[in-house]
Design goal:
The protein is of the alpha+beta class. It folds into 2 domains: 68 residues, lambda repressor-like DNA-binding domains (434 Repressor (Amino-terminal Domain), Orthogonal Bundle); 106 residues, Jelly Rolls (Sandwich), CATH 2.60.120. It has 5 helices and 10 strands, in the order αααααββββββββββ. Strand 2 and strand 3 form a beta hairpin. Helix 1 packs across helix 5 and helix 2 packs across helix 4.
Length: 186
């Protein structure tokens, strides 16, 4: 992740927390992320993983891609590929690219998952969104609660009710998938 994006993510997390009237302690309680880690992230002193950012964004009522897009907000309705923010998880090397323009009611996110890696997210990450996964290239094993789905190139899966999810690439080649998501209407 570039220093500029790391700084911008730090500022975005801080601004979103402040806009919701949350203290660091309040965000820690909502997200399950320690106060010390939140403070480090907001100072730009820690490079957060996908799991940590997923927990923080969910506690802030945002999607992970919305958080990254806000950090890279360039405004406008057209998101040129060169301007689409990418973020790499420091733990797994998974690359997430926010395809949609910032602020769009529907978000498209392209993910490249390296061979032999997996990323897990808690159910509360999905508490307020509906999403579909469309496998663009490779093979993806997706565990949604107790259900396991094997996706091949071209397959599209609509996710069910919020559940603990694990994205895993069981092959020796990277897999790429597109996640389409919208905020759930309550």
């Amino acid at each position: 992740m570039s220093d500029r994006l790391a700084t911008s993510i730090a500022e975005t997390v801080h601004a979103a927390r402040a806009a919701r009237g949350l203290t660091v302690t309040g965000l820690a309680e909502r997200s399950g992320v320690s106060r010390a880690m939140i403070a480090k992230i907001e100072r730009g002193g820690a490079q957060p993983t996908a799991v940590l950012l997923g927990r923080l964004s969910a506690a802030l009522g945002m999607t992970l891609s919305e958080l990254v897009a806000r950090a890279e907000d360039n405004g406008g309705r057209l998101a040129r590929r060169a301007d689409q923010p990418t973020w790499t998880d420091p733990d797994t090397g998974y690359v997430r690219r926010a395809v949609s323009p910032a602020g769009s009611p529907m978000e498209l996110v392209e993910v490249e998952l390296p061979p032999g890696t997996q990323v897990s997210f808690a159910a509360d990450t999905y508490a307020f969104i509906d999403q579909q996964i469309w496998l663009l290239d490779g093979r993806l094993r997706f565990r949604e609660g107790n259900a396991e789905h094997e996706l091949d190139t071209g397959d599209c899966l609509q996710l069910g009710p919020p559940a603990h999810c694990t994205f895993s690439n069981p092959t020796r080649k990277p897999c790429r998938y597109l996640v389409a998501l919208t905020k759930r209407v309550t």
